[in-house]
User: Fold this.
Amino acid sequence: MLQSTYPSIKTIHYLTDSPTSQYRNKTIFKILADHNEDFGIAGRWNYLESGHDKGPCDGLGASIKRAAYTAICQGKCFIQNVEDLYAWSKQTEESGSKIKYLYYIQADVDMSSEIIQQKEKPILISGTFKLYAIVPINSCTILTRETLCYCNGCLQEQVICKRQDEEDIDKNGTLVPTLEVAAVTSDQKEMFEYERIQYSEIQPSHWVSAVYEQNFYFGHIVAIDIDDDEVEPNFLEKSGKYGKAFNIPSREDKLWIKREILLTILEKEPRPVGKAQKIKRT
Assistant:
């Protein structure tokens, strides 16, 4: 609706109160991060300080209620439910009111809820109560601020999900390298039925493949614990629509895992190639 009315609009700025149950939570952060992809326009969210005075939104709501009450008292309409209120609102639009009304039924709410449920589950961000603005970078990263300022010194980067886009760009405009690999299908399981890798074969900095929680990963060995039969890889980050690519994460993703879930030791270290600096397996 906004784009049809204002075709040159580039960014929507949301200005709301800051209750965590409604507007200031990880679900809203994820919706905002996907705003450009879902709606074709960028979005930013700004939160008012708690205990603030009444603002334009409060005044608009009060004006609508007063106008509806006046219309009822004058016998111009009979309002008993939301359908009656919407019918009255359309009459006011036809009479020249500049206020535009949208009517959403429960089916619309259920459909939106289902779309949100299908998205990747966002992770928690500490200090949510202190945030006063959210600026998305991509579908997994946002910038936040705890002050009333948008300068680079006040904006801080926050990761809200584990996935990164296949050719991601960080806040400095730097392309994040990715690693492309083939998907592992059921008819390829024989390829990965190797004997257990011996400790004598594993060295720190070796690149290995592993299956962890039914997902396929690449990483390089950081440490080895022979006594507990564990190794500590620094994993690459899954990327792409179908998880067929991997990013070099902005933050290290180290995890101690059992040696038995290692599949192979890569003969060569993955290296970036091409204009996009992708890392392809050789």
About this structure: The longest strand covers residues 215-225.
